[in-house]
Amino acid sequence: INPTSITIITLSIIMGTIMTMSSSNWLMAWIGLELNMLAILPIISKPKTTRASEATIKYFLTQAIASAMMLLSSTTNAWQTGSWDILELKNKFSTTIMTLSLMMKMGAAPIHFWLPEVLQGMTLQTALLITTWQKLAPISLMYMISNNIQPALLMSAGILSMIVGGLGGINQTQLRKTMAYSSINNLGWTIMIMALSPNLAVMNIFIYMIMTTPIFLMMTSTSTKTLQNLTTTWTTSTATTLSIALLMLSTSGLPPFTGFLPKMLALNELITQKLTTLATLAIMTSLVSLLFYLRITYLIMVLTSP
C-alpha cells in the first residue's frame, strides 16, 4: 500500500474511534464505527492470500450485521422516546439489541465465532489492531449506556465469554487463535464487571491492552505464529522469549503480575455485592484459561525443543 493510502487509512481508523467515543448522538457514533470498519478492511486484505480475503469478508459481514442491529435499536428508541441521545436509551428492547450489537462488534460470547477465524487469517500486526484499538469504540458506547442495561444480561454474557475463552484456548496450537480466545476471556471480565462498576471495566480493558500489545509485537519480531515456532525462539532471542512467557502469565491473571489486579478488584466488587456464586464461577473459568497460558509458558521455559 502506498504512503498516501496508509496515511488516509490510519487517520480514518483514529478518527472513527475518536468520533464514536466523543459523540452524544447515536447516528454520529454509528458513522464513526462505520468509518473505522471500512478503513481497516484494506489492511486485513493486504496479504494476497485466500485466508486474508476470507477474513476480510467475515469481518465485514459481522460488523455490518452489528451496525444494522445498532441502527435498529437506536431508531426504535428514537421512535419511542423522540431522542437520538446516547444517554437516553430507555427502551428495554432497544437496550438489549444495542448490547448484543456492541458485543458482536467486540467479539464477546455468544457472538464470538468470527473472532478466532478472522484473526487466524491476518498478519500479527493487524491482529493486534483488532484485539486492542478496535474494541475502544464499542467499549466506550457500552460504558455510556451501562446504567440502562439489565445487569443479568451483562453478567451472563460475561460468564459465557469467560467459559468460551477458557475452553476454546486449551486445544489451540496456533498462537493467533489462542490470543483471540484470550481476548474473548478478558472481554468476559470486562463485560461482567461493567454491570457493577463501569470504571473498573475500563481499567480492566486498558490493562489488557497494555499487556497484549508487547506480546503481539514480540511475536511479530520473532515471526512466531504457532507453539512449534515458540519452542525455538529462545535460540534467537532469549530476552524476548522470557518476556513473552512472563506477559502470558500476567495476562492470565496470576498473582504477583499486573493482570491479577483488575481481576482481584472485580472479584472484590462481586463479593461486596453479595454475588458469591458469580465470583466462584469467574474464578473457576479463570483457572481453565490459566491452563493454556501455563502450557505456553511451560513450552517456552522448561522444554528444550529438538
UniProtKB/TrEMBL annotation:
<feature type="transmembrane region" description="Helical">
    <location>
        <begin position="191"/>
        <end position="211"/>
    </location>
</feature>
<dbReference type="InterPro" id="IPR050175">
    <property type="entry name" value="Complex_I_Subunit_2"/>
</dbReference>
<keyword id="KW-0472">Membrane</keyword>
<dbReference type="InterPro" id="IPR001750">
    <property type="entry name" value="ND/Mrp_TM"/>
</dbReference>
<comment type="similarity">
    <text>Belongs to the complex I subunit 2 family.</text>
</comment>
<protein>
    <recommendedName>
        <fullName>NADH-ubiquinone oxidoreductase chain 2</fullName>
        <ecNumber>7.1.1.2</ecNumber>
    </recommendedName>
</protein>
<keyword id="KW-0999">Mitochondrion inner membrane</keyword>
<keyword id="KW-0249">Electron transport</keyword>
<dbReference type="GO" id="GO:0008137">
    <property type="term" value="F:NADH dehydrogenase (ubiquinone) activity"/>
</dbReference>
<dbReference type="GO" id="GO:0005743">
    <property type="term" value="C:mitochondrial inner membrane"/>
</dbReference>
<keyword id="KW-0812">Transmembrane</keyword>
<keyword id="KW-1133">Transmembrane helix</keyword>
<feature type="transmembrane region" description="Helical">
    <location>
        <begin position="152"/>
        <end position="170"/>
    </location>
</feature>
<comment type="function">
    <text>Core subunit of the mitochondrial membrane respiratory chain NADH dehydrogenase (Complex I) which catalyzes electron transfer from NADH through the respiratory chain, using ubiquinone as an electron acceptor. Essential for the catalytic activity and assembly of complex I.</text>
</comment>
<dbReference type="GO" id="GO:0006120">
    <property type="term" value="P:mitochondrial electron transport, NADH to ubiquinone"/>
</dbReference>
<dbReference type="InterPro" id="IPR003917">
    <property type="entry name" value="NADH_UbQ_OxRdtase_chain2"/>
</dbReference>
<keyword id="KW-0813">Transport</keyword>
<feature type="transmembrane region" description="Helical">
    <location>
        <begin position="275"/>
        <end position="296"/>
    </location>
</feature>
<keyword id="KW-0679">Respiratory chain</keyword>
<feature type="transmembrane region" description="Helical">
    <location>
        <begin position="231"/>
        <end position="254"/>
    </location>
</feature>
<keyword id="KW-0520">NAD</keyword>
<keyword id="KW-0830">Ubiquinone</keyword>
<keyword id="KW-1278">Translocase</keyword>
<dbReference type="Pfam" id="PF00361">
    <property type="entry name" value="Proton_antipo_M"/>
</dbReference>
<feature type="domain" description="NADH:quinone oxidoreductase/Mrp antiporter transmembrane">
    <location>
        <begin position="23"/>
        <end position="287"/>
    </location>
</feature>
<keyword id="KW-0496">Mitochondrion</keyword>
